[in-house]
Write a structure and sequence with these properties.
globular, about 0% strand, mainly alpha
Amino acid sequence: MEGQLEFALPGGARTRAIYVLLGVTLIVFGMGIAGSFHWDDYSLFTDTAVTTPSGWTEVWQWIRSRPLTYLTFWANYQIGWQNPAGYLAVNLAMHLFGIWLLYGILHRLIGDPAAIIAAALFALHPMQAEPVLYVFERATLLSTIFCLLCWRSWLNRRYWPAVGWFALALLAKEECVAFPLFLLFFERAIRPVAAMLGLSLAAGIRVIASLAALHVAATAPVATAAAGAAAKGAAPYAATLSAVIFSYFRASLLPYLCTQGLVLLRYFRMLIFPYGFSVDPDIPLVLDWRGWAAWAAILGVAIVLWKRTAHGKWFAVGLLLLLPSSSIFPAADMAADRRLYLPMVALGAFAGLLLKGPRLRLAAIPLLLALAAVSSTRTGVWRTERALWSEAVERGPRKVRPMLQLSRASEPEVALRILDWAERVAPTDYRPLVEKGLRLLALNRPDQALPEFERALILLPNDPEILNDRGVALTFLGRPEEAAEDFRRVLGMKPCTAAARRNLERLGMTYPNTYP
């Protein structure tokens, strides 16, 4: 690729340009520091690895993933407790540091003004708002910083320090597993890359092991089938495991892969025309010609750019960095803006090289100002949960999860109307019923909450959480024997359920403890 391989920090007039960019970024995203927590952020405060003084040691347990990221959450909590400003300020500081690192690297590889345009796109594109303003996605920021440090060492031909930086990136977030292949486009040092790929494999095994230990539903069928077959001998075990894997491939992996073709088109469309953002986009699974045609178009464009243009390799390696979360490794969500954060280091360079010409350079400044304006708007949306989830409901009116989140951010009576809407949208989904029951309990209306829990149990019989909620409603209604029966059923299924045990004790009853 273009440029020299030695690395030096930018200086003189070039330094002024990057500091102006950092200042603009600070203004655009700095308003978000006054924002709130969102979604998975609240789970941090029920995690003892974050909230206890000894949590800094607990994050390193083998059943936990992303220990470095959780170590930073632990430090945030010890200093600022549950004040979101401190957490958001750390996220923003990481983003600023990543911009500075990226510009230093690209200045040596592609020169100015392409490097400053690329750094500005990485800094200010609205796609970057989610990882910067969503506290829980600090993992993406931290992993990208370590990948950039790895890249810098690699360009200096300090290969084994680069391996160390990559190991830290994996400890922050494992989705950077393709980064060693990215490095091969700059220096073909096979042994260090092999070592990094080995680390990637180990990180993947560690994640799978931790998920299995935590009884994640997605791994339970495979584990159960394998255990049952193993008890009958190696040959049946292999046959059963193969059948389970094949079934899982057809039911989950193949539809996810097909759908990601359309998702990638959405990403590239939003990179060029930044409109239609949503924290929870409504993207249904597909398994037909549309997804495969999208993949064919994307790969065809990548090949043509590679072979026919001077800078097409940057597009190809950006696509490579995006593939781990957008190909054969199913994620919980079909699409998420944060997945573009690391690939933007290459896609931004591709765009910077396209815009560096004298004529197009004139368009770069108004383009970047427009992106800054849109990102400022995104920052405003991310400042409150109500604004964030109202947008998601507006742009995905058939999706239940945004409605549930919006109800939690709304006043009680408004929340009940939102949940009635969610029930009409998805009459076979138990979640709106449970959420409505909990809201009614909070309003001290257990007589109306009880039917909601009972209807939810028709859709999902013997669910421990719903049974516990129904028991609470029965307790408020003065029906302690029926409530106690629900709490005992919960403990019979999950003896370690502390809430059900406490609820039973409040009724003056106990349940035999089978644990020493």
